[in-house]
Each structure stands twice: as C-alpha cells, then as structure tokens.
DNA sequence: CTCATACTTTAGAATAGTTCTAAGCCCGTT
DNA sequence: AACGGGCTTAGAACTATTCTAAAGTATGAG
C-alpha cells in the first residue's frame, strides 16, 4: 500500500503524500500533469495545495516512483510506469499512451560524444486525428 | 540567399527576417533557442525585438524552414535541419547534436490508435557527463 | 514615383506553468 | 507529552512565451 511504498522510498508518509500515492498507484499505469492530479485530488474531496502536488511529483520522480515525460513545450507529464517503454503522444488531446518496451526498438544509435554516457533513449510517436 | 528563400516560403523579406535567416542558414545546421538567437542578433549589432524573434521562429517553422525540438521542459529549441534525423541531448549543457537519419532506426512501432496517423517519430538520446 | 493597404514590428503588459518564501504544521522519536 | 526537523501552504515571484495595439514598412496599383 501507499504508506509502505513511501517509507521504502525514504519519504515520510504524510497525509498528502499518501493521498497522492493512492491516486497515482491505485490501478493501471497513469500519465498525469501537476494540474490534472491537483484537480483529481480536489475532486476526491481532499485538500492538497498545488505547490505540494509539484513538490510531491518531483520527490516521487527523484525516488524512482515516477518518470517525467517531456513531449509538450507547455507542460510536464509524469508517468507511473517507470519501466522500459515509450509513448504515443496524441497532439490534439495532449494525451499519452504507452508503447511496451518489448514492441519497440531503436537501433543504430552512434556512440555518444567523448566523456558522455547515455542516460536514456526516449521515443515519442506523435500522432494526430485523421 | 535569405531574401529568395523567404519569398519562396511566402514570407515578406523584412529587414528582421532577412537578418535572422542570414544567421540561421549561413553555415552548417544549427540549434537555437529564442533567447540565444536574440542574443546573437544583438551581438551582430542589429536590433530585433524578442517578440519578433519568437514570431519569426514560429513563422519559419510553419513554412518548413525550421523544426521545433522538444527536449527540455523549460525552453524550446529550433533546428535548421528539417530533414530526417534525431538528436543527442547533452543534459548538463542543454545542447543538441544531430544524429543522421541514416544511422538510426526505430522498429516495432505499433499501429496508432483508430483514426490517428503518425505525424513524426522523435528520438532523443539523453546523455550526461562521465 | 507615390500612395494606399495589408502585413510587420515592437515595447510593454499579460499569461501560464512552475518555483520560491517563510510561517505554521505534523510525523516520529525520546 | 514534548521536541525537532522535515512538510505543507498561501501567496508572491519567476521565466518563457504570447498578446496588444500603436507605429512602421514592403508591395502593387495607378
């Protein structure tokens, strides 16, 4: 459950973090923005400030519970799936869909510049209506 | 030259657009941000407002002369190379390096959701020092 | 060449997402 | 129960970007 997961990640299980973790990790994999999560937690009748939502998303990301996905210049998405996978990005709706890592492969990446190591390879398949 | 290129793209060759196009398309492929280009044009002793730099970058992108690259949540990059290629992103320095399209390949992309068509596949190889 | 007009540029204000501040709160330990 | 350090929060601040509306300018017609 949420409390144990937080403790294991070295994060004090405060009311706010437990609430947010509950929403984020309840069911399936999810993609949220700070604002969407803030709305959702408010909808659930819990009061958590937007600043705390931002803090929490970053702490969870630092602890490896979330992964930040950069696909849109105007806002940040966070993904509850931290495993090997990539994304479709529906540009019309600003929505992400996972592509399992087993399905997709990138080949022919040149060796990185001297003194650099590959941190991650991100693939974004941008799709539009029609 | 810049003037002809602008006319061909259906853009009136104003002093500002000609100056910016001159800087952008003079030599090799380049990656700029609005701010870096604004600094550069100022350095060259020309006065172009930041708003015009933004306008121009977007108009050039709309005309197919530039391509916007989304790799960083906090700012937009524009690439003078509009051909098929991908990028290394040096996270420590906020710098982009092209990976030629012949070198890199993505396979196993599932078919997009119903009613959607693939617009573009972007690969970002994030690298860090050491 | 001159003019009219529509398109451009610009300074400054406005906006949106995000981060910061500092004051009070609360979790875990003693 | 009390304490101490981390946590939360409202609101201000910040930053990249976009908007506004007023002044400037390229272009085609005459």
Describe the 3D structure:
- The structure is a homodimer of 130-residue chains.
- Chain A has helices at 2-8, 15-25, 34-43, 50-62, and strands at 31-32, 67-72, 75-79, 85-90, 95-100, 105-107, 116-129.
- Chain A starts with a helix and ends with a strand.
- Chain A has 4 helices and 7 strands; from the N terminus they run H-H-E-H-H-E-E-E-E-E-E.
- By secondary structure, chain A is of the alpha+beta class.
- Chain A is globular and about 50 Å long.
- The first copy, chain A, has a 3-stranded antiparallel sheet with strand order 1-3-2. The first copy, chain A, has a 3-stranded mixed sheet with strand order 5-4-7, with no helix packed on it.
- The model of chain A has no long low-confidence stretch (mean pLDDT 95).
- In chain A, helix 3 packs across helix 4 (50-62).
- In chain A, strand 4 (85-90) and strand 5 (95-100) form a beta hairpin.
- Chains A and B meet through strand 2, strand 6 and strand 7 of A and strand 2, strand 6 and strand 7 of B.
- Strand 6 (105-107) of chain A pairs antiparallel with strand 6 of chain B, so a sheet runs across the interface.
- The first copy, chain A, binds a DNA duplex (30 and 30 nucleotides) through residues 12-17, 33-35, 48-52, 54-55, 73-76.
């Amino acid at each position: 459950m949420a409390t144990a997961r937080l403790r294991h990640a070295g994060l004090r299980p405060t009311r706010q973090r437990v609430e947010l973790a509950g929403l984020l990790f309840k069911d399936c994999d999810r993609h949220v923005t700070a604002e969407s999560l803030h709305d959702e937690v408010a909808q659930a009748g819990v009061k958590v400030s937007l600043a705390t939502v931002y803090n929490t998303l970053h702490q969870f990301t630092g602890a490896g519970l979330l992964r930040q996905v950069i696909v849109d210049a105007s806002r940040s998405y966070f993904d509850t799936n931290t495993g090997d996978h990539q994304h479709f990005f529906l540009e019309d709706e600003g929505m992400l869909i996972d592509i399992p890592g087993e399905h997709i492969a990138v080949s022919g990446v040149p060796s990185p510049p001297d003194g650099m190591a590959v941190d991650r390879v991100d693939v974004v398949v941008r799709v539009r209506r029609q």
